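Recap from last week: sequence in, structure out.
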Amino acid sequence: MSIQVLIILVNKTVEIIEKNGKKFIGENEIIRAWKNDKGFQWFATEISKIRSIKSETGRSIINGNPENDIIYYGLIIKKTLEWGYFSGKELEIVEKAKIIF
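Predicted structure tokens:
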């Protein structure tokens, strides 16, 4: 099964393929996906780092507060398409993104 996601802002199509109940972008398995009210989307394909509030050097500071966090790597779709790192907690708190799968 193949799902076509049309991104109008960049006039490109991103193909999300479902195989054996898992979703993929190309050969990269999507482990989590988010979308916010602005239509921005984040597709995590790997976990880069887990940050703990108990660690002095490893925690995330979001809106001035220390937070437990997971840093992901994956496809970011805003006005452009790009691969990069992003904070799961920042998506939740700042971007108000909701998990879509």
